[in-house]
């Protein structure tokens, strides 16, 4: 392998190791990093949904954005840009989150779940590959959401990162304005939202992974897309590294539990594990990046990616307020309908936004 592939392999190993350590320090099992789950927790923390077990301002997300932004500024790669079907990207982000919460995890958590022995995650991974492959079909047939415009000012590119800095300040203060009603931050007392690594450790982990992911362009949907299109395995090597790094520590930590049953924050409805990540893979391919990549692009000043991130946070609120989100007991009828609607919506967008 050339130097760049060794670098992304080392990045993947580092991310996997950091994820396992975060679990050891308090994060939920198989959830050292989960972009969708953590954005869902943030949506709950600011009161967008009232699912009491998933409310916490996750410092890892804040660190990912800030780490990417700082290294992009240092390397001269930070540039505010946007205007490529921005509102549509927001809606696609909503559906991408719904798919993730039907599965119970983003592509990054899917890899971490596989490294923890969760066989349900392998079924989800097959769905994700199928979704990206469908997206590649649309790309080959001229799919394009339009060109971005570059702003004369970089101010727009720092707005969402600054919002998350403000959230981190509220987290440090443990801010509760109204002791009776709660808010502006809500904190879970039980469930996954009550399980977290120390605040400064979680922020540092996010910063490190944000820097590494920005420098290597780490993206699972991009890796599958590139391999299908041009047989380039560069990005896939990074996720092999994540799997290996997490597995190496999961075994001595006692986190490795092979099987379908009794997996942490997972369900065994195989068709919906497949279709949930199918929707995520299809949306990620059409959007140009998986949930992790959207955060990194946001840190680089991409306001269209910021719209996707905002859409995912709002999508988490819809998922819990409208009972779309799965639970360890499975996926309810509303979640099943929402997942199918999301897939049909992505097909409609894929066919509608084709260049002649």
From TrEMBL:
Q: Is NADP a UniProt keyword of this protein? A: no
UniProt protein name: Uncharacterized protein
UniProt superkingdom: Bacteria
Source organism per entry reads Candidatus Syntrophocurvum alkaliphilum
Pfam family of the protein (one): Sulf_transp
Span-the-membrane segments of this chain are 56-74, 86-104, 119-139, 151-171, 191-213, 234-255, 275-293, 305-327, 333-353
Q: Which UniProt keywords apply?
A: Membrane, Transmembrane, Transmembrane helix
Asked if the Swiss-Prot or TrEMBL record annotates the protein with the keyword Transferase, the reply is no
